[in-house]
Amino acid sequence: MDAMATGLVVGGCLAAAACGFMFWHAYEGWARARRHKASIAPEGSDGRKKADASVGDRLISAMERLERELSLTHGRGIAPKGFPEGKGFRPLARLSGLEGKVSPQAFNEARFRMAGTCAAAGLVTGMLFSVQLSAVLAIAGAAVGFGMPGHAMRARAKERAQAAERHLPEMLDVVALGMRSGLPFDSSLRIYAEHFDTLLSRELENARVQWSCGLSRRDEALRNLASTYDSAILARVVETVVKSIRYGSSMVASLESDAAEARSVYQSQREERIAKAPVKMMIPTGVLILPAMLAMVLGPVLLELMQGGF
């Protein structure tokens, strides 16, 4: 009987370890396939790869749909009228590229709907165990759901800044090469926009059209563009371009040095993210693999101790 119990424990531990390894292997394959699809897919209007839509992207799309629904229904929703959107909503909407696309009312509507949905999910889950747990999970779910739209917008702002910093060196190289060939700044910028389909190229082209049509000055259009990104290197490059155009100085050398600096900054950020990967790997290792290995090694010993073998 003792041998049978020991065999069952060891077999269960081995099965748990095998299941954990298979789960992690499957997750790694899924993550590689997702990264590959994202690398070959074209970028959408928000700067993200079309094949790499996350929960935050879907939530932002839902907020944009809510904005259209509220405009058609004259603002009738479940969110109270005049509910404050928070101090950081308007700057966050600008940095996330949602200025003019999502109003404070649509943002509040999304918060209240997500809070109700997550509260209902927590309530149903908790009712399977106890009434007290259902109340706790409902309150926690409401708090989490209420903060999800703001978290999605902060994630979008960060992704937009990373996308701009990724494409900034090639933009500066192309513009500097065109200016070395004798082209003016506007023509070099138009060549970049025609041959590169990125979020940064499209917004630069929109800014160029604005000052070409006389809708705004060149410095205003460039500074407004830089203010929609949470990127210090992009703001510094824009200031360099504005000052060079204002004072008539040559900007080719400064553009090339800015391109090298932007490439170095982006490379250092990528190296930092890679350096953090082993720390993040400790979570699945500790949750999936380590408990199974400890149970497999210590299982027979614990059985002997429980049966008074020592």
Structure notes:
- Helix 7 runs antiparallel to helix 8 and helix 8 packs antiparallel against helix 9.
- The protein is mostly helical.
- It is built from eleven helices and no strands.
- Helices cover 78% and strands 0% of the residues.
**Annotation field: number of helices:** 11
Rg, rounded, reads: 27 Å
Q: In total, how many beta strands?
A: 0
Strand content: under 5%
Approximate shape: flat
Low-confidence stretches: none
Helicity, as a percent range:
over 70%
Major sheet details: none
**Average pLDDT:** 79
The helix-strand sequence is HHHHHHHHHHH
* Backbone structural class: mainly alpha
- N-to-C CA distance: 18 Å
Layout of strands and helices, then pairs:
Layout: H1 2-40, H2 55-72, H3 89-95, H4 104-127, H5 131-180, H6 185-195, H7 199-212, H8 218-227, H9 232-247, H10 252-275, H11 277-306
Keywords:
78% helix, 310 residues, mainly alpha
Can you give me a brief rundown of this structure?
With 310 residues, this protein is mainly alpha-helical. It has 11 helices and no strands.
